[in-house]
Structure to design on (457 residues):
C-alpha cells in the first residue's frame, strides 16, 4: 500500500482547485499562489491534475483519470505521484476540500 | 527583409496571418531582443511554435523559458489586480482594468497571448484621494512625486510594490486627451468580465478600441510597444461591425482623427490591409475635431509645446491654467527636482519635462 502524503485526501473527500489567475504554457501551467500571488509552475502531470480539478473530484476519480492518461505507468507509482501533487497543491493553498 | 518585417511578423501572429518573415537561427538574438523590448514574447513563442524554422533546440528552449517568465509575471500581476480591485470595490470605488489586464481576457484567443507588465486601473477623478489611501493601505507606495498642485491634472499616479507597478488612472490619456475623453462616461459604460472566479470591470468594446488606438498613437517611439499595437489590430479585426460606433463616439469626443490614425498605423505596422468596414467608416466626414489636438498628436514627431497649448485651452478656468503652469515651474516637493536652485536650472528642468513623457 503506498504511503499517502500528509495532506492527501481522506476517503470520500472531494477536491477542487481554487479560482486563481492561470496561464497556459503548452504542457505546463503557471498559477498564482493565493496567499501572495507568487507564480507556481505546474509540470505536465500536475497540470493534468489541475485541469481535472476544475470540478469537485475524489482522489479515486483523479486516479482513474491518470490511469487513462498514463496506462503504462505502475498504479502504485501513479498513486504516489497523485498524492505528491495533491500535497504540493495543498501546501500552496491551491485546493478547496469538501 | 527590411527592419519593419520582424515587427510585422510578430503583429501578424496576433491576427492569425503568416509572414512576411520567420525567425531563423542566425538572427534569433535580434528576434528575442525585439520581442522582449516590445513586450510581445508570447507572440514570438506562438510564431516559433506554429512555423517551421531552422532554430536549434536551445533557441526553442530560450523562448519557452522567456514565455514562462512572462506568464509568471502576468499571474502575479493579475493576483494583485484582483486584490486591489476588491479593496477598491469594498470602499465603493469603481475601478476599470485597462490595457492588457482587460484585453488579454477579452480580445485575444487566450490570455497567454498577451504580455502584461504592470497594473492599470481607471477610477473616477473624484475618487482619487480615497483610492490612493486604499492603495497605500495595501502596501503600494507612490512611485514618484508630482509637481505641486498637479494631482488634479495628472492622467495617472504610479505606485510600486515588490518590483511591480500600479498605474491609477483618473483619465485615459495625457493632458487634452484626458479632458476630451470623459472618464465618467467610460466608467458608466464599463462591462464586467471574469478572471479567476472574480468579476472585474473593463471598458466597453467601443471604448476599449478607442483607448487602444489613442494609446498606441500617443505613446510614441520608445514608449510605443507592439503589444499596444496588437491590441488595436485585434479589436479592429474582431469587431469590424463596431467601426461606425467607434468612430461616431470618438468624433463626439473630438478624437476621431486620432483613433483613425491609430488604426491605420497599426495595420501599416502589420503590413495588412485595413478591413473594408473600417475603410468605409473612415470615409464618412468628420464634423467634430479639435484642430490643435490634431496638430499636437498627429504629427510624425512629438510636439510638446502644442500638447501643452491644446491642454491649457481646454482647462476649465484661468485658475486651473495658473495652477497647472505654476506646478511646472515649482520645485518637486520631495527633493527629486534636479540641479541647483536658480532660474537657469529651473528652465532646463522645464524643458526636460516638455521633452519627456511625464505630466
Amino acid at each position: 500500500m503506498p504511503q499517502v502524503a500528509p495532506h492527501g485526501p481522506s476517503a470520500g473527500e472531494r477536491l477542487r482547485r481554487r479560482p486563481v489567475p492561470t496561464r497556459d504554457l503548452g504542457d505546463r501551467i503557471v498559477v498564482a499562489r493565493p496567499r501572495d500571488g507568487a507564480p507556481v509552475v505546474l509540470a505536465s502531470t500536475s497540470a493534468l491534475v489541475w485541469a481535472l480539478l476544475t470540478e469537485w473530484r475524489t482522489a479515486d476519480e483523479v486516479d482513474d483519470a491518470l490511469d487513462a492518461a498514463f496506462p503504462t505507468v505502475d498504479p502504485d507509482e501513479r498513486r504516489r505521484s497523485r498524492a505528491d501533487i495533491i500535497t504540493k497543491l495543498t501546501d500552496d493553498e491551491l485546493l478547496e476540500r469538501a | 527583409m527590411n527592419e519593419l518585417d520582424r515587427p510585422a511578423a510578430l503583429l501578424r501572429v496576433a491576427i492569425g496571418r503568416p509572414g512576411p518573415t520567420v525567425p531563423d537561427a542566425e538572427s534569433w538574438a535580434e528576434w528575442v531582443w525585439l520581442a522582449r523590448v516590445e513586450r510581445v514574447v508570447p507572440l514570438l513563442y506562438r510564431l516559433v511554435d506554429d512555423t517551421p524554422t531552422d532554430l536549434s533546440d536551445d533557441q526553442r528552449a530560450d523562448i519557452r523559458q522567456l514565455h514562462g517568465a512572462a506568464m509568471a509575471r502576468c499571474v502575479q500581476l493579475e493576483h494583485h489586480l484582483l486584490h486591489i480591485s476588491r479593496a477598491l470595490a469594498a470602499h465603493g470605488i469603481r475601478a476599470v482594468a485597462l490595457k492588457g489586464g482587460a484585453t488579454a481576457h477579452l480580445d485575444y484567443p487566450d490570455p497567454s497571448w498577451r504580455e502584461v507588465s504592470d497594473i492599470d486601473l481607471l477610477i473616477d477623478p473624484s475618487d482619487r484621494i480615497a483610492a490612493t489611501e486604499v492603495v497605500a493601505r495595501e502596501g503600494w507606495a507612490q512611485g514618484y512625486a508630482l509637481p505641486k498642485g498637479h494631482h488634479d491634472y495628472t492622467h495617472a499616479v504610479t505606485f510600486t510594490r515588490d518590483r511591480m507597478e500600479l498605474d491609477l488612472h483618473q483619465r485615459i490619456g495625457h493632458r487634452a486627451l484626458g479632458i476630451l475623453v470623459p472618464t465618467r462616461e467610460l466608467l458608466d459604460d464599463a462591462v464586467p468580465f471574469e478572471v479567476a472566479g472574480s468579476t472585474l470591470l473593463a471598458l466597453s468594446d467601443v471604448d476599449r478600441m478607442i483607448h487602444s488606438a489613442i494609446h498606441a498613437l500617443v505613446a510614441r517611439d520608445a514608449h510605443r510597444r507592439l503589444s499596444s499595437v496588437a491590441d488595436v489590430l485585434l479589436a479592429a479585426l474582431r469587431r469590424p461591425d463596431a467601426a461606425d460606433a467607434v468612430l461616431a463616439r470618438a468624433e463626439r469626443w473630438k478624437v476621431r482623427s486620432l483613433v483613425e490614425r491609430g488604426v491605420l498605423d497599426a495595420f501599416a505596422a502589420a503590413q495588412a490591409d485595413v478591413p473594408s468596414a473600417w475603410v468605409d467608416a473612415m470615409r464618412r466626414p468628420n464634423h467634430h475635431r479639435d484642430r490643435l489636438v490634431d496638430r499636437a498628436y498627429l504629427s510624425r514627431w512629438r510636439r510638446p509645446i502644442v500638447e501643452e497649448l491644446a491642454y491649457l485651452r481646454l482647462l476649465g478656468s484661468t485658475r486651473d491654467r495658473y495652477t497647472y503652469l505654476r506646478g511646472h515651474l515649482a520645485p518637486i516637493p520631495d527633493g527629486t527636482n534636479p540641479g541647483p536652485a536658480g532660474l537657469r536650472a529651473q528652465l532646463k528642468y522645464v524643458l526636460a519635462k516638455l521633452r519627456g513623457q511625464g505630466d
User: Anything to note?
Assistant: Residues 1-5 of chain A have pLDDT under 50 and may be disordered. The two ends of chain A are 25 Å apart (CA to CA). Chain A touches chain B through 19 residues (CB under 8 Å). The longest strand of chain A covers residues 28-32.
